[in-house]
């Protein structure tokens, strides 16, 4: 029997009741999750077949046939289970739960006698287990199995999947580690690290913690086993270097973010878990250094990361091209994971600000408003003719698609949105920190007593947030509210009395009193449209502005502004005006554009070009590509 | 014996005496050609080995060993012979001539009994002749052999190489053509077409003309033999599509330029030769359409063409990225070839303007001021950190290099510069058209009499050109002088009398009189520095200017302006001032740049950035990368 002790769980603590997010959770729960189930079962016409459920049927002997898909196809199933589990919090659904149980039984049957589970290696490469840590993804899939197991257990209290995962982890622990007789390896694609920490918090099993610590510490030791095992070295298109796997140096010696952006995010998340759990100050210092490198030198305004398609990776500092950006949806989700762990390590609004930016822009852009079409890559400008003709744009999709051959992003965004309540708060002994403003009801345990906070807000449509406080009994402790860095003025009231509270060094204001029933806090963050400029080291954005209001970045679409969006200039003294059209918050601003017909077919001219005034309309970035597909889109506009 | 009748030859007609060009011819003749001889013989330390002379030794049985290099390695030898032959015009050199003869003897020995010559197929793939027209380059190499043979013959009157080429052409003609029993193919890489026309003009052999016409007409017929023969289809990185070879449609149906830029230029050059020779009006119409597409929609300001590294090719209209430009030196040389043929088809300054632009910018940038280091790719901006880290920049060299594994460009530029005199004039029955202004002495044959024009000029340093006319006896005919499109005002004098001559529709002014000894013409083209803007359909250049003076495009270098060149803005009302430093014509203009230290490590800000005034120095584009290597360079600057 499993020894299960809960150390931390916020999964069931928060109920979302929010204009914006309730709608999203509704879409994910009622449309996306059923749609993705069909996708995993190859029932979506016109979508690349997933075959991932069928792979399990084959591996378990229920079906015959050959494996199809990526080596990590199993992870799509696990992420779907995780998302479906979270959706049960919002929409209890016996039928869905039965479907998950059925799937778990299939996974159980696919598990080998020694505990190993991976349909790719079981079906397609039975003699090649653990031979390709760079691209094989066995430990990555194990990590997603563990996360699904923990999620399903936390939501339903059922340990069917947890038992399977636990057995697999026992097997993994028997194979790999520092001890004599074990292989000294680490995963090429990180994920199991953060998953083991989630497992550890549920099981309390020190082995789970130690295995995670081992994987973190082993990474990047030299000489690298990845070089020794690898047969792809020299194949420029398939071997991306040690730093692609964050394996160029031991993690404690890493000063800048390298390689595959999702891998990096999952690693840093696991590292932060360890730093929190063990109080490892050195690791915390490393993480702060990496955080600074990512968010102040390598992050798009949208919270997108990974500026190169080849290797889906980070490049050099300030290298942030808009049109060939990669900015994978999963990478922004990973950035949220990491940001949340950093908030657990130390309260600082920089983490929450970035988390919120990624959420409202680079993450949400990855899914259509109907929840059934996806972007993998989230560029900051799109020119369909370049995408069609240029080889260096081939990773960019100018149109949301029903599924991907490599379908990591769709279930990842589904599990993120259905678990959004977990990103709102952190608590420490005598303090509740509020990071995200979302209409919701959350139950805390303060000194052994229930303490409920109800947020009522239309944020980010407007910046007023009302907190109703419901303590089980009057209690004195601190509530800290994030004042985002973009907010230069704010007002806060307790029980309608304005409080003159300074902003702490961490960017929060701290309110402390004996909280009693019917106490209210009212926070007002003025949501002004800002013209954002990038550090001039970012070559692509020099002389340009982007529009942002609160956490929401805006973009221009061809649908509203005609083609050739780059030929729009925003005069320095023009101010954007907020619109509200069809439930879409959009902006209007006066601009100019060069007359195109004066050129009479010429390519170059020494004559001063003629400019004409135009009305420019911008919409929230995350909504782009939801109307006419294969049209232009632009975030950074020329300023004049 | 060969029947040799010269139809046209200007190779020996012009002697260059020019500050700018005599120096270049001197460098090429005394440094570059000896240097390249060493390179071809693998005697340059640190350069990739060429092995190309050794390949001939192996093929001729003088040496044993294996073939090394590209399948088209032979062409480097042929182009070197062509360049060396032209250099003999300027610098008669017995020793060099003997070296060429020795090489010709080697080639003769490498020629197979049936007339075939190609060291790659002879040595490395003896059973695979004529199996890979897409990448095999056998007819391409044959073309360069022919060009070398014609050049050597025209300069020295020796037909040793011509005889070899002629035998090879006889063999080729026996293999390929419309007639029964011959294979219906055409070269994947065009070159032999224009070479056959050069040969035809020397030999008068109609077969040479007809073979060329056949290759032109066969190209692009469907179904394509290239698809049938090709085993690479599906290999995204090696099969670039039919349009890569300009074989997507019969040439007469082609409306836009496609594919590999050098291939396209060589094809269009051959097509123009045919159109001139046969009076084919349909072909002329096609060429004008293609010319318009290339020069008004797909050409960099520098005369560079081919905006994508992958496939070294044209992409879509107005897609002209500056940093990932390909703009191969050979492509700009090919553009000059084509432009010159278009001038022979019809006099119009658009051809000469483009030819001159390519010459002074995209061609000359391909060679260092010392003549011994080269660029293959000629981008319009370079950021070394991007080149080092970004996969989509991997074709860009931020530093001139001593040689290339694929070394087509270095000997190509050598033969171009040593034959520059051929690009200055065209003649028709009663007219001499002057296209390029270069200090020189040229002897024409007018109505059977000698007619000499001496140009004296410092152009393009200044815009004054003096023509001394020396007719053998007084004669009445027209002399047309190009007024470049960038020149809005000009003055022209005959014997010190101002002539008020209107510009013809073709962009030339026509002077006609009975020319007598001591007549002079004086043309003054004011060389003003222009701020050039690109058609706003060119996304990359919106809101930017480039500086140009006469035909010379300028650029900024890090050496003069510090790093982060993109952070320089030129105010709309600032005027550049001409400098003259160290024999280099450079410009200065007042600019501003954003303070970088105000950012304090932040990536994005809503604060108005602080600008500080800076002096901006620009140098001629073709000279970039001659001082500190691996530094930034920029042509298009932000305007404010």
TrEMBL record, chains A, B:
Signal peptide (UniProt feature, chain positions): none
The answer to whether UniProt assigns keyword Hydrolase to this entry is yes
UniProt keywords (A-Z) are: Hydrolase
Residue intervals of the Non-reducing end beta-L-arabinofuranosidase-like GH127 C-terminal domain = 529-638
Per UniProt, what is one Pfam family of this protein? Answer: Beta-AFase-like_GH127_cat
What residues does the Non-reducing end beta-L-arabinofuranosidase-like GH127 catalytic domain cover? Answer: 15-421
Cite a single GO BP annotation.
carbohydrate metabolic process
The GO terms describing molecular function are: hydrolase activity
Instruction: Report the SUPFAM superfamilies cross-referenced here.
Output: Six-hairpin glycosidases
Q: Name all Non-reducing end beta-L-arabinofuranosidase-like GH127 middle domain ranges.
A: 432-527
For this protein, the record's PANTHER family field holds: DUF1680 DOMAIN PROTEIN (AFU_ORTHOLOGUE AFUA_1G08910)
This chain belongs to which protein, by name?
Glycoside hydrolase family 127 protein
Originating organism: Halalkalibacter suaedae
């Amino acid at each position: 029997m499993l020894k299960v002790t809960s150390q931390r769980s916020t999964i069931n603590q928060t109920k979302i009741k929010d204009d914006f997010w309730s709608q999203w959770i509704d879409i994910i729960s009622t449309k996306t999750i059923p749609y993705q189930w069909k996708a995993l079962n190859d029932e979506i016409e016109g979508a690349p077949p997933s075959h991932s459920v069928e792979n399990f049927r084959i591996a378990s002997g229920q079906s015959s046939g050959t494996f199809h898909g990526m080596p990590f196809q199993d992870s799509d199933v696990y992420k779907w289970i995780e998302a479906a589990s979270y959706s049960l919090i919002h929409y209890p659904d016996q039928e869905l739960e039965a479907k998950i149980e059925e799937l778990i039984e299939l996974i159980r049957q696919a598990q080998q006698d020694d505990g190993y589970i991976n349909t790719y290696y079981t079906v397609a490469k039975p003699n090649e287990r653990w031979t390709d840590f760079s691209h094989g993804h066995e430990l990555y899939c194990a990590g997603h199995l563990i996360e699904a197991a923990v999620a399903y257990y936390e939501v339903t209290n059922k340990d069917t999947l947890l038992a399977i995962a636990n057995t697999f982890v026992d097997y993994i622990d028997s194979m790999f580690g520092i001890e004599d007789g074990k292989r000294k390896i680490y995963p090429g694609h990180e994920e199991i690290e953060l998953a083991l920490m989630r497992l550890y918090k549920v099981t309390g099993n020190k082995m789970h913690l130690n295995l995670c610590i081992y994987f973190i510490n082993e990474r990047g030791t030299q000489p690298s086993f990845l070089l020794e095992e690898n047969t792809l070295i020299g194949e420029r298109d398939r071997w991306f270097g040690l730093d692609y796997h964050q394996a160029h140096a031991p993690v404690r010696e890493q000063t800048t973010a390298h390689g595959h952006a999702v891998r990096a995010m999952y690693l840093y998340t696991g590292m932060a878990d360890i730093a929190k759990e063990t109080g490892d100050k050195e690791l915390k210092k490393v993480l702060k250094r990496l955080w600074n490198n990512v968010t102040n030198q390598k992050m798009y305004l949208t919270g997108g990361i990974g500026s190169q398609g080849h290797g889906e990776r980070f490049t050099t500092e300030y290298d942030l091209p808009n049109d060939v950006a990669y900015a994978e949806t999963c990478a922004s989700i990973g950035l949220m994971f990491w940001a949340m762990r950093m908030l657990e390590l130390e309260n600082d609004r920089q983490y929450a600000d970035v988390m919120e930016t990624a959420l409202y822009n680079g993450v949400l852009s990855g899914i259509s408003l109907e929840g059934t079409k996806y972007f993998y890559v989230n560029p900051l400008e799109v020119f369909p003719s370049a995408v069609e003709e240029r080889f260096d744009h081939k990773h960019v999709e100018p149109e949301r698609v029903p599924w991907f051959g490599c379908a990591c992003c769709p279930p990842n965004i589904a599990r993120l949105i259905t678990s959004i309540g977990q990103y709102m708060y952190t608590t420490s002994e005598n303090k509740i920190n509020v990071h995200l403003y979302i209409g919701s009801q959350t139950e805390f345990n303060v000194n052994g007593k229930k303490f409920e906070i109800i947020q009522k807000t239309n944020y980010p449509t407007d910046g007023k947030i009302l907190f109703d406080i419901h303590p089980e009994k009057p209690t004195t402790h601190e509530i800290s509210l994030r004042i985002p860095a973009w907010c230069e003025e704010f007002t806060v009231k307790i029980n309608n009395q304005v409080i003159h509270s300074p902003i702490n060094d961490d960017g929060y204001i701290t309110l402390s009193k004996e909280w009693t029933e019917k106490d209210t806090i009212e926070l007002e963050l003025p949501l002004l449209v800002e013209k954002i400029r990038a550090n001039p080291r970012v070559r692509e954005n020099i002389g340009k502005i982007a529009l942002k209001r609160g956490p929401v970045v805006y973009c221009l679409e061809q649908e509203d502004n005609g083609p050739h969006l780059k030929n729009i200039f925003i005069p320095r003294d023009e101010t954007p005006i907020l619109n509200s059209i069809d439930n879409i918050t959009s902006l209007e601003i006066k601009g100019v554009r060069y007359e195109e017909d004066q050129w009479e077919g010429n390519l170059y001219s020494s004559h001063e070009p003629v400019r004409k005034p135009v009305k420019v309309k911008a919409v929230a970035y995350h909504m782009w590509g939801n109307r006419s597909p294969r049209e232009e889109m632009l975030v950074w506009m020329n300023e004049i």
